[in-house]
Amino acid sequence: MRPLVLYLRSRQVPLALPGSLLAVVAVVMTSAGALNPQRQVITACLAVAAGLAVLGQGFGGVDPELDRTAAVRWPPLRMVHAGVAAVLVGGVTVMVSTAPAGVVLRAALGFVGLAALAAALFGRQLAWTLPVAWALPGVVMPPMSEPLVVAVLTWPVQPQDSTPALLAAVVLGVGGLAVHAVRGTP
Amino acid sequence: MSARMLLVELRRSTAIPIAIIIISFGVTNFYILELTDQTGLWQPQWAMLAGLQRVTLIVLWPAALAAGAWQARRDRRSGMTELVGTTSRPTWSRSLPAAFAVGICAGLAYLVVTAAGAVAVSTPYQHLGWTPIALVGALSLVAAAWLGLGVGRLLPSVYTPPVLAVASFILLLAPMELSKYRPLTGVWLLTPNMSSPLDELTTLAPAVTGGQAALFAGLALAGLAAAAVAKRRFALAALAPAGLGLVAGMVVVSAAPATGLQLDPAAAAEVCTTDDGPKVCVLRIHADALDSLTGPARQALERMAVLPTAPTVVREVVDDRPGPQPADEVWFASANHTPGEGWEAEGNALSVRVLAGGGTRPCGEVDYRERGLTAAWLWGAYPAPGPPLHGTEGAERLAEWERIKTLPAADQLRWFEGVRAKYLACPGGGTP
Questions:
Q1: Does ipTM come in above 0.90?
Q2: Does the beta carbon of B165 lie under 8 angstroms from any beta carbon of chain A?
Q3: Which of B36, B77, B170 sits opposite A144 (nearest CB)?
Q4: Residues B206 and B288 both lie in one domain
């Protein structure tokens, strides 16, 4: 138990987890009462991105050099950490939002990959950049299914049964988690 | 602040990354519009280019705010706050070079995107009236970056940039959502991302641009002040320029028309034929389509020569031009022109369009059946050239045509003059 508590503390989870869930609820609340279903999808995707942007600060330690010296198998631990973050944020968003669950979980998968990728590329403090940078333009564009490049760019707000959107989320999610698990944070 | 410090900051701050983000997003936006055949949103008019780019600020504003907030945390991030605090230099001497670097890059990057879109603009109407709209957009982005610097200085948390980005995006989403239900008015016109689309003939009222300039100048100064004051508790002073800018902006914008949009008089000016034939005039914005209209329009005038009061001029008019229309003129609605493509018909079909309603514009309660039948009557054949009608409307129109043709010639003329007189007298003139 003690190693787990110490690990969570080293990842700022005690502060970031409530903050992240607060961010999710606050973002979803901004569309409370809006009748437009697409608006619910937009805020749900934003909520997932915001939640993971906050939790993404914990995708690495304060001192990566020190982490590397520890006799710990980091890759599985990093993957479990990011996976649990995605499940938590996605699950809470599904509970508070009226957007389709499939869309929310797809967003959680894609955005956690982006956050993990950004953490691996630019460091944990910039883990928020890629999910936010994809979420803002991605949700504001109308979700056109043609041509393919637009469908992929707007994957968060595509309909639940869109194959290109699902593939985009899976590639981003699995790819980002894998890169982060192998490389860690700089 | 020396030029050398500025150069160092240009290389070592978030200036270059934010410029890259702005340019890549702006250019991608144009590219996607090109891919999805929406080039008509900006290519037919310079003001539309400036207006469309303002819409993208819904994403660029949060990006600039976040970049500023990230920049403001630099000293703390590298554990330098105490060391820097011991040097006998004022705070602003450290913060201003970085602020100017970020501001310059954000504003210039916005203008680079304008230039990228300008390459594709193709219009006979060359003017500079659109530049204030673009420049205020660039100013607003500078204001966003500096506001981010100020907020980042006051709330130096690692969570500030992402929260600021998402929160400002949701705030900017509000006017966009609202504009789907009613035109934006009053203080809503001051939002950086214009949610009222411009068309070829409308432009942003100068008072709106002026009000926005005042607001963004105030916000920029506020951000700069919050980033540069010696102690964080002095940052309250930043509220002064922000409040002043907001008040000035609201005062100036109240001089604008309610929707903030107005007809561009120069774009709607007339360009006419100069040869000896009957005069044909188009709007200046469609000057390059004058030649393709001249022939069909003159053919239409020939067909109308049988009338007791035969018109001698064809004028293209904006759709809501106030009446009454003089009987010796033919008014041709500018809706017959598709931006970037030309007239919606050519040759004889275009002549028939000119003849619709007896050479009048659609106005008031429009009955397209009688407008089509009067065109066919002048043309002398039904169906007249143009897209064929199918279904019950086609059959009913044909039956009506047969009935009219059985009338005595005087009654036919009386029916025709009745329809024409209705549209000639129509007052029109709703505000755009």
A1: yes
A2: yes
A3: B36
A4: no
